Amino acid sequence: WNRCAFCPVYKGKPFELRPAEEVEDDIAQMAALAAELEAKDEAARLALARQDGRFGQVARFLLRGGKQVFLQDANALIAPVEDLEAILRTLRARFPTIERVTTYARSHTLTKRSVEELVRLRRAGLDRVHVGLESGSDVVLALVDKGATAARHIEAGRRAKAAGLELSHYVMPGLGGKALSEEHAIETARVLREIDPHFIRLRTLTIAPGTKMAELRDEGRVEPLSDVDVARELRLFLSGLAGIHATLASDHSLNLLEEVECTLPGDLPRMIGVVDAFLGLSDHDKDLFIVGRRLGMMRTLADLVEPRNRGAAERATETLRERYEGPLDEAIRRITQTFV
Description:
Distance between the termini: 19 Å
Number of helices: 15
Shape: globular
Strand content: 5-15%
Strand order of the largest sheet: 1-2-3-4-5-6-7
């Protein structure tokens, strides 16, 4: 697809599907390297794990137990079912220690696969699919040229679950800008309630230079949210997740509130409480936490009361105000752009 307004990845790279035989040959070569590594002592394995290239990749994989594999790149599920079946069976046969195989998938692609085809892939060794939901609002999805609608997201998610696959959805707080913030939060929660995925992963919007999203911002069609605005949107989003049975993960540096991570529905009130605690801070303390979090000095709200962390954030905030003209929000946006 490679048209999403917010995405800076894969630009200038033509789409192609690699032949199944080529991928299977890659797997065979990796297995041969693994056999070489297993004959070496632990010190040699550790040394190789620090190297780039295939030896390093296999060494790191084995040192972690050889249990998890992710199929690259952005939508491996688009490969013909027969090819993907063969690749999965080869992978499982060559590396019997594997416990989970995951792939990215577009909702559009999932709706082009029957439940029976998805079951075939699960039986061949696929366990989990990660889908970029981003938003449940048709207006927002159209604005960012996602190539999906809320209805298609729901159909795709239900189809993956019906096939017995684990389903992980990415959600992008802030994607609708200020004008669509409320709709984005409410509709995204609604779509997730309809699907009830196994995982929800937060990836707060940061507008990367050179993207269509940057053009929309410069044209005045999207007004970016501040971190405080995103927290308000997040609270509204969380309040709409009642009844969902999922693991909510805030596992990215773009997210301000890392501790908004829990198992739903039981932990939902506690997570809303975390957001409320942040929103209840004074403006000065909000700024300190935002700067501290963005510069790696703080991870949780509890860090704000630790004297050393607080002092470092005070000094950093003062420096940022001196270095950048205009609101502190603009300085923070420049910092978060380096996270993309």
